[in-house]
Fold these 4 entries.
Entry 1:
Amino acid sequence: MDTLLRWPDAPHATVATAAAVATASLILVAKAVLWPRRRRVLPSPLRTVLPRASREELSRLVYLPDAFPGARDVETPDLFGRGFTDGVGDIPHDTRLYTTQMLLVLASSRLCWTGEAGFRLIGYSLGGGIVIPFANAFPHMVSSLVLLAPAGLIDAASFGSVTRFVFSSGFVPERILAVLTGRRLQRPIASRAAEVLAAAEAESLVGEKSPLEVRVSEYVRWMVLNHEGFVPAFMSCLRYAPLTEQHGEWKGLARRQRRTTAIIFAEKDELISAEDYARHGLPLVGGEEHVFWRVVPGSHDFVMTHSAAIMKELDDFWAVEA
């Protein structure tokens, strides 16, 4: 029996080396599987799904490139990783990336958009946080700036310590985090500040959904399953996008010409508090004497449920008579 249980005669150094090599190999394999190398381009469904889809499958899609009235094929770039725009896998989804994308979109047009007072710029939710740095960097281009329930001054503490740790620590493997995030995006959005990005993808939060909200909710779930760049873009935005602590950028709005900036909030917004922004943000932008500041009915999805109220305020802002 002693002979059967005897450890093989091998130098301790050899055994230790073999164990170290095995452990290192296991770590490398686990890293490759759970923390894969980031790809530069994450192709959109325009390249991965639509070319192989049948007519019947295409007819069931909520959103197509020719979805505009008259089935016009209009170039409408989406943010990286959304819609029919490829995702960017190896660069943080921060202000620099989105400012660059906006410049690329402007440059891609045959029309000249970069002159003095070249265009009006509107940003909603995450989009509001994105367009403020652009308007500050290129004030001469933007004749008027409209911010609808904009991100940027959300209290970081409202994200929750667990959420911040999970997304910022790096301890949770990317593949596992992506799976959990994808599942979360396919469920109705809860009223938590940590999910402002998901609300920016236009899920309805409470109450009965309008037909448009139903279609958008279906499309969000479809993107989770069919756009390789959507979930990575969401996770990267939660880490790097201008959602919180953008007080410096908001101060920049005070340097814009008087009454060329409109900021509109929803009265019962679960994510962007009109009261908190009035307390912390309004003084930064120069007060109501400098900017057009309004609160209208609705919750965070008010761009779909209360569009008439928003347009009425914008008509007033732009001095457009009915």
Note: The chain is about 45% helix and 10% strand.
Entry 2:
Amino acid sequence: LAQRCSGVPTSVPLFSALLNFRHSRPDEMARDGHGIWEGVQLLGGEERSNYPLTLSVDDFGAGFGLSVLALPQIGAQRLCGYMHNAVEQLVEALENAADTALNRLPILPSAERDTLLREFNTTAADFPTGHTLHGAFEAQVERQPHAIAVQQGERSLTYQQLNQRANQLAHHLLALGVRPDDRVAICCRRGPQMLIGLLGILKAGAGYVPIDPAYPAERIAYLLQDSAPVAVLAEPSTQALLGAFATVDLLGESWQHHAVSNPQLAALTPAHLAYVIYTSGSTGQPKGVMVEHRNVENLVHWHCEAFGLDARSHTSSVAGFGFDAMAWEVWPALCAGATLHLPPVTVGNENVDELLAWWLAQPLDVSFLPTPVAEYAFSQHLQHPTLRILLIGGDRLRQFTQERRFALINNYGPTEATVVATSGRVRAGQALHIGRPVANASTYLLDAQLRPVPVGVAGELYVGGSGVARGYLNRADLTAERFLQDPFNPGRMYRTGDLARWLPDGNIEYLGRNDDQVKVRGVRVELGEIESRLAAVEGVGEAVVLVREGRLLAWFTENYPLAIETLRSQLQAQLPDALVPVAYIKLDALPLTANGKLDRKALPEPDQAALLSRDFEAPQGAVETTLARIWAEVLQVEQVGRHDHFFELGGHSLLAVSLI
């Protein structure tokens, strides 16, 4: 009866766990069961439960009895092991440390703890160390000076040409007073001059601060003010964006008279700054992440080994200029001697069809696409003719239903962990995981007390190892808050603010941001779960779910026409009512930022067509007209017809109370 009245579908348990505390007869007969069935002949029976997990505690007065009933599919043996361990720890604490807080009692058996911290983090790799990024590039110049380093349409530069021009720029920057660990800003459009600028800055000992010309003027001004660069590189088309800052023209001749030899900076080490990339900040102001050469050096070695990138490879760079994935595209390619293909200046992630048309025409064997761009390509059934490996990242992978001729590698990592912290191949129809920690990285899923959580349990994701960045520029307080001492290994770890859980095979399932776990009608909602269910509906291409003004809204693309009633009814069969969106907004394509990430701010507000409403017939009479006006105000809809349903328009019991 409770299940039927709750609105929870019969396929979903009303409770995931049940605690049953029973006061039993204290005498011995009750304790061992004798006498309970006196006068009754027991012919047989079996235990059953309506809930996945039931724990019964019998209070016998002089002691307690515990019994557990668990369904096999939830890992009954493992759960019972946790309970047994918890009881042991509780008894020991009561005897030896009665003041111990309950939430400090460990429940993980030592063997599982070792699996989580050691076996799942067996990532040590003996890569060469002690090199700068431009040093590794210069080694490729020595090996193959006439190989093509960068190709953009008809324009190309060999490794020798790229090196010589970068050297001239570096000597010019040194003459301007640039020193190791200084910051030099660069604002330019995609092209060979971009690589000349990046290499020239590194060769002068500084770290580069990329500024995307597509940024709003206010953001550009803030990045320049906060990073305080000692020099600014630009090109004629971007100089006006930089205000009063004096700039070095990347396309000019003022620096091209300098020597073409490699600058020699004895004081420069891999611990010096490579770049500062700004990410969105919770305070509204971007924060600059300082990444060192040694951080990127580990990324380069792992990438080249994991994906077979070498001097015969062709790869691409499509990420936005201010996006950290650009560093992942550029430096492994140039340090491996590969050819880097750049799309035309006019083609960006906002023009997805044009970008993919260019991408399909390139002779690539390893390439990166932002996850939303890749998902769009999948929905269009595009197949790259030469691609061996497709790397995706930057956003959550929502679906992958059909295998491709290339391997799909899903990657996860915050800027603070040098682009990629975990990586793994995803196969159609299997769990959409983010893989395992990359070489020389550690990942921990921890609770609020920084203790490992069991396999299958959600925890906050922390990243340690060689990729952990130096910290935030000019934000010592935030650096101390987010970059913590690693309690399990020497070094530091970064607190990502992301939620995830271990899968039994050691891969990690991404669950979303901590702040994505919102409450709707008093119920904690995990948006990623709703998105996954909606994306799994036949005919749905891509799906996004957000909370706006206390309402769950869904945006989707479709492979063929779908009725809102179909979407809603399928979700109602799988989710509690509180988790079913009230509006479904159909889009031709999800809006993307210049970095290729989902642009949530650009998602439109729902109109009447996004709501499940009946054929409109105007209210009749004063009562219906008044009631329709009140409904429209409470439900925030344009109009209410006399046949519309309060709950289908997004109403619920809490809103119904406000009508009174």
Note: The mean pLDDT is 88.
Entry 3:
Amino acid sequence: MAIGKNKRLTKGGKKGGKKKIADPFSKKDWYDVKVPTNFTARTIGRTLATRTTGTKIASDALKGRVFEASLGDLIQLDDEDSHRKFKLICEDVQGRHCLTNFHGMDITTDRLRMLVKKWQTLIEAQADIRTSDGYLLRVFCIAFTMKMRGQIRKTSYAQHTQIKAIRKKMVEIMTRDISGSELKEVVSKL
């Protein structure tokens, strides 16, 4: 720095002057998230969206948004089923309400880790099944072998042919239960 100049006291300041600080939340609106009628809860929370300005419409920003809630929160009865997570997708916006529909179901990772144990066989099956009202569901199922009553052997593994037979039976049962029912009935079965 040159002698005799004070850096902080230069005339004019920085280029462009000081920027006006605007709160981003002042341009946003809150919307209630409504769940489908097959759950006892009516709303599961609220979400933010930027207000409609020019060509950007607020409802377009909300449509397609996916919300996740546990089954314990959706049926408001028991926390016993809180390990099941439901994904709900926003399909329509009416006023300040986001109307959602079923988008998927999953199990929490801690519950899945609790189920998997040593000395047993894990069998996974998946199937693409169309419901009676036209929705195509990809269903995953998991099964485990277990010890028989009075079994002395430490392990309870299944042979490859047995695994194939069990997997085939799992796909059969999933197809039978889902293909003859509508999406609402399938969600209530889960």
Note: The longest strand covers residues 84-94.
Entry 4:
Amino acid sequence: MIIENEYNIALKAVNKASTYILAQFNQRDFACIEKLPNDFVTDADLTAQQIIREILSSESSYPIIGEENLFDHQNQNIVWAIDPIDGTVNFINNIPIFACAVSLINLKDFTSYVGVINLPFYQKTISAYNGGGAFLNENKIELKPNNHVSIAVMRNRRGSKLANSELKNITHFRNFGSASYEFTMLAEQKINLYYDDSTCLWDFAAGKAIIKEIGGKVDVLPYDRDNLILSKYKVKASLYH
């Protein structure tokens, strides 16, 4: 594998899809359906996923999985994980906090080789590849001293808790409704800790690559090791550890 080549393919796919997503967000011309109770999808999600899929499948040899019922992995360990619009509820409600995310991840050990997250409304691309560093647009992200108020993003959907020692310096808590967006906040060092005790592979895979390249740490625990694609995960990420 030439990781930088896969990284450039991911950038191309995410940037093209994000242009489409932003146009749909501005035009407000999309259909919305409820897949499950309180779980929504729009035709913008589906079209964006197809845009990404077409580029990845034509330029890369790795199989693809995606949030919107896309499972082409064929029992292989290294897969592309796609979240075409992470933050669909925000997108539907005209809240500009949503992201388009793609990662190349190894399901055997959860190594994220490539991670690309685009924030269409904010014209930001936060990306990384294994050994190549992390970038905000084309500028390399450097880890700065932690000298601001400590903020954490936390979701305790299963009732699990972090140790008091991990929370002792946290003074404020936030939830933005998009895991990928929250990982970009962590990458830009605007928050100090990300924790979710029930998230999906495509929600954290791109962010994991980015945080690792900045020098941070991401702990991943699947609940169902027999079905890593559909398993929920407990994920904790921090830059200062």
Note: The chain has two domains: 3-140, 151-238.
